[in-house]
What does this fold into?
Amino acid sequence: MRFSASSAALWLACSIGLVAADSTIDENGIKSIPLRTHNLASPYLDSAMQSRWWDFGGNTIVRADQYVRLSSDKPSQEGWLFSRVPLTATNWEIEVEFKIHGSGNLHGDGFAMWLTKQRATPGPVFGSVDAFNGLAIFFDTYKNNRPGTVFPYVMSMMGDGHAIYDKANDGKDNEFMGCSARGIRNANIPTKARLTYFQDKELKLELQYRQEGQWELCFETNDPPMLPSVAYLGFSAETGELSDNHDIINVQTKNLYNTNRGDNGRPSSPGMEKGRKAGKDRNHAPKSEGSWGWFLFKIFMFFAVIGGGYVGYTAWRAQQKRSHRF
It folds into this structure.
């Protein structure tokens, strides 16, 4: 196949257009670029009954047209779903559609969302490993021993690789921030969670469970914990004597980049809620706030332009030589 310089330029323009078409910029100048390596949607599996970007195990069931069921409404089940590659973006947003439902009046135990160094390791904490390193969000539907707290309860925990989750007290002493979410189980609308992270600037969790399109702030802080530089995105669930179906329906992950010059992180909003627990003060070494994902994208496009130009020039030179022969 022969390429003219104009053909090479057209191919390059189309490639750039396809990538740009997937990205959006909101009213605050925040550009979002989908991360296909951390997205999940029906039919979930390829023709070989595998997923290119995700692993699953335990009692997990995949129904290609509906859900990835981490645990069924049966006693003593646990299952997990984890990304195969780590999430290395500096700033990101993860939106998850899930469903917690069952037939009994008594139900449990719940499911968890993970951003941790560990991956695909079964354990006693909502179906995954204890003493983890990273961030966990627990959607706890069964109250063990936590007076004064309304369940279901959604809480975050930062693990340092040594801390043990206090299961007997529903993680009371482990909590970073959290909120009650009565109505999140057996909801009549699609239930969703949206976790947004800007390094050193913001960690925010929003929930949709009361009305479609209406997001409830669960917690927010402008002093977020430092997450591991290499963290895997995952989900897990467990049931004990009581049970529920815990389904993951859709996962959308985006790399975020502030296009406003001079500030690569999201500006902190005034009066930001600290949540139930603001956590201890943290001193972080100064870090570059730019998005590595965006930086690598620009490097890729730079070499793509050079490569396209070289292909076009080589084809043009070859055509010129052939024309001089006659």
Summary: The domain at 35-288 is CATH 2.60.120.200 (Jelly Rolls). Residues 292-324 form the longest helix (33 residues). The CA atoms of residues 135 and 158 lie 5 Å apart. The chain has two domains: 1-28+291-326, 35-288.
